[in-house]
Amino acid sequence: MSLKSRGGGGGGGGGGGEAAASKSAVSRKWTLLFCIGCFCAGMLFSDRMWSVPEIKDVSRTTRVDNETPKLVSGCDPTIKDVEYEPKDVYGEVSKTHHAIHTLDKKISNLEMELAAAKAAQESILSGSPIAENLRIPATRNKRKYLMVVGINTAFSSRKRRDSVRATWMPQADKRKQLEEKKGIVVRFVIGHSATSGGILDRAIEAEEKRHGDIMRLDHVEGYLELSAKTKIFFATAVALWDADFYVKVDDDVHVNIGTLGATLARHRTKPRVYIGCMKSGPVLAQKGVRYHEPEYWKFGAEGNKYFRHATGQLYAISKDLANYISNNQHVLHKYANEDVSLGSWFIGLDVEQIDDRRLCCGTPPDCEWKAQAGNVCVASFDWSCSGICKSSERIKEVHKRCGEGENALWNAAF
């Protein structure tokens, strides 16, 4: 039946329209409720579907985090109990640094022992003063000496060397006895000329063949290279001779060896000793003057003084300090003046500086009066010349008036 024929009656048409409208309203309410219900069901179903993967992700992340250390800032609230992990990481880093430091120290010690072993082997082959019963290049079998005295000299200083040989430096058999009985080694120290194998080198080789008292360094001689020469001397000496002390002295200075040995022996139990006449002179910035310091600006404003260091005519350092120079010679800075360089190498180290003025007495009458008073000087020179003025001519006079006497050396007990 069609809708049109249903609504065809006159009076019954109004009642039928109201019923249809009522049904239509009820249908819309149920439809709205049904939609709301479906929406809520969909939301509930959607929450459940998404919550499970989220929980799994958090659980998996926590499990992985517990298995591997990580550095986190702690900003993620889903990650818990990670406060202890950075401490564990820092602890591992600290242990690693400690292990590296220990390994580096062992390597340095091995390198030093290797260098000393090579030097000992070369000494055996060349006849250098190593104990005669030494048959293998092992440092533990090397003889122990009290001190090694290196006399800094130059190619042009033949007369100075001869004057030293004629006064305070024992010669020939007496020098060997000095090494064997007193444990004192004395050598002139010199490098090579700029022209290797030239006339200067041949002259030194002939002099060494005659006297046997010259120590050659792997170094090119030059006045501006004294700091490098000093560094190489200590490194070479500590490899050749196992001594308590290593001494550097200029070839225009008079030395009483017995008094020097007795002075150093009093400090034998101290591990890091730096002995000399300590000073702190001005840093000379003006070009052309003697002892000019090109790097004067490193010492602050112009007119400042150097740090405290031993004067360069004579000073002594203990074995530990000589080893320190040998092990670190490639990074130790060289200033223009070698005594300043040596003092700078010990800044920052736990070193005991000993200022002993007997290591820098004046020439007669100063050293003579002190000797007569029973206070024999270790070394004598003229400050105005930074050594004995005209030393090749005057050192015999100084030795006669200020010398300790031959018996003082051989009767001394170190």
UniProtKB/TrEMBL annotation:
Keywords for this protein: Glycosyltransferase, Golgi apparatus, Manganese, Membrane, Signal-anchor, Transferase, Transmembrane, Transmembrane helix
Family: Belongs to the glycosyltransferase 31 family.
The name this protein goes by in its record: Hexosyltransferase
InterPro entries with a match to the protein in the record: DUF4094, Glyco_trans_31
EC number: 2.4.1.-
Superkingdom per UniProt: Eukaryota
Gly residues bias: start-end ranges: 1-18
